[in-house]
Amino acid sequence: MSKVYMALQDNEEAHYLVEALEEDNPDVTVDYQPAMIRIENEDRLVLKRETVEEKMGRDWDLQSLHVNLVTIGGNVDETDDEFTLSWN
Fold it and tell me: Terminus of the chain with fewer CB atoms < 10 Å: N or C?
């Protein structure tokens, strides 16, 4: 098994993203570092638009993830509803 990861800027919107990632990926590890948040998981990490919208209480475009994204590790599969990292 290999870990996949993403790092987000540490800002208000990113905190909603982290909450959604924790809900959709129960074994996720979150590491708060200066100015960024690193999130990692074994094999697969999924961010669901629907879960983020529930946390934010408003509509959210998955493409806006890229504004907060610092780096990723893994192969990306992206739709309008999910952003998934995995190792193929």
Answer: C
Q: How far apart are the first and last CA of the chain?
A: 11
Which residues span the domain enclosing 34?
Answer: 3-86
Is the pTM higher than 0.90? The answer reads yes
Domain count, the chain: 1
Q: What is the pLDDT of residues 8-44, one digit of tens each?
A: 999 999 999 999 999 999 999 999 999 999 999 999 9
> Which residues, other chains included, contact 27 with Cβ-Cβ below 8 Å and sequence gap of 6+?
41, 42
3-state per-residue secondary structure call for 12-68: HHHHHHHHHHHHHCCCCEEEEECCEEEEEEECEEEEEHHHHHHHHCCCCCHHHHHHH
Question: What per-residue confidence (pLDDT) applies to 71?
Answer: 97
